[in-house]
Amino acid sequence: MSDVQAHTLGPIGHAPMRRSASIRRTTSIDVFWPGGYGSAGHFHGIGRDIYSDSPNSAPQTLALQRFEAVVSPEREIARLSTVPARPSITALVGLNAGSQLRKALDGALAEDLANSAPLYLLLDDLAGASLVANWAWSRWGDGWLSQFIPISDALALEQRRSRMTGVCTGFAEGSSAIMDIRGELHDARAVPALAHPDDPTGWHKLPASSGVTMRRARRIDVWHEDGCLQIEAMFQDSASTPDGGRMAVHEYGLQATANAQSGELLTLIAQPRVLPYPECPAAAGNVSRLIGSPLAGLRQQVLVALRRELGCTHLNDALRALAEVPALAACI
């Protein structure tokens, strides 16, 4: 398989119909702001694993886990609870939901990490979801921009350059992303519902919502075919819109095969579907650096092989989640 060219392909659309003898993990983090713009975000996370005998049979639920969190505008975790309960998560309250959370998470959820439980993936995703969440307000007016441009454009541009240059492919030196301090070049695409209309049980039930909301969603499908482990995954950040639809700012599709015994990656294609800037899709051409890596080690290996300008923050998030595949495959 060859890597994709540097352009976006458009939204994936509904999830495919479930395959026979397959495992599917779906996760979602929905964010609401009961106090309005500038208030704390309320994060509702759901993760579900199902086994399907066939596309037409009711799926067997293997795992269903949840979390709820309240995160301040400064991204401090004010409250956190999980189902099933995990008393150790009290260590996460008070932390910044970015790097501090990810550093502490392995210790707080050591057993969930070892078991590749949905709860670990959900809370690991809280870091990225809390970073992106405020973008949802951009679908409902321009007032949100004031928090990012409180000073002169020239000074804001210099600060953006110094803070962001080189953090990823999209923010390489001289990129349009660095220059676009007002979000005027920012691209987003309308996306349909995640569940296939002919297979509504293929996705877990999503929270009812109205008004301004943001959602981070994942799907990972795993099955055996042609003597290999087959993997298809997607990753999406989307927001509600006043007309009742949804707009995505980030979406990737992944297709991979792996050795069924060793878990070693044999092929890997990343499909940049929706991304905010024209430079962003170039990172997908670098995923071949991961060929030969064991799936179980991808959380660490992705950060080494696709660091800084070689990677995309959101592509890396999508790829790191493939570390869950060996545990999912063991259920087939």
Structural descriptors:
20% helix, disordered N terminus, alpha+beta, 332 residues
| Main sheet characteristics | 9 strands, antiparallel
Proportion of helical residues = 10-25%
Q: How would you classify the helix and strand content by structural class? A: alpha+beta
Beta-strand portion reads 25-35%
Distance between the termini: 25 Å
Strand and helix order: EEEEHHHHHEEEEEHHH
Shape: globular
User: Could you say how many structural domains there are in total?
Assistant: 1
Q: Tally the helices: what do you get?
A: 8
Ranges where pLDDT stays below 50 over 5 or more residues in a row are 1-5
Radius of gyration: 19 Å
Tell me the total number of β-strands: 9
Mean pLDDT: 89
Description:
- The protein has 332 residues and is an alpha+beta fold.
- It has one domain (22-329).
- It has helices spanning 99-108, 110-114, 118-132, 153-164, 176-179, 298-305, 313-320, 325-329; strands at residues 22-32, 41-52, 60-71, 77-83, 189-191, 213-225, 228-240, 246-259, 265-274.
- A hairpin with a 7-residue loop joins β2 and β3 (60-71).
- α1 (99-108) packs antiparallel against α3.
Task: Put the structure in a nutshell.
The protein has 332 residues and is of the alpha+beta class. It is 20% helix and 29% strand. The chain has 8 helices and 9 strands.
Would you spell out the secondary-structure blueprint of this structure?
Layout lengths: L21 E11 L8 E12 L7 E12 L5 E7 L15 H10 L1 H5 L3 H15 L20 H12 L11 H4 L9 E3 L21 E13 L2 E13 L5 E14 L5 E10 L23 H8 L7 H8 L4 H5 L3
Antiparallel strand pairs: 1-2, 1-6, 2-3, 3-4, 5-8, 6-7, 7-8, 8-9
Helix pairs in contact: 1-3
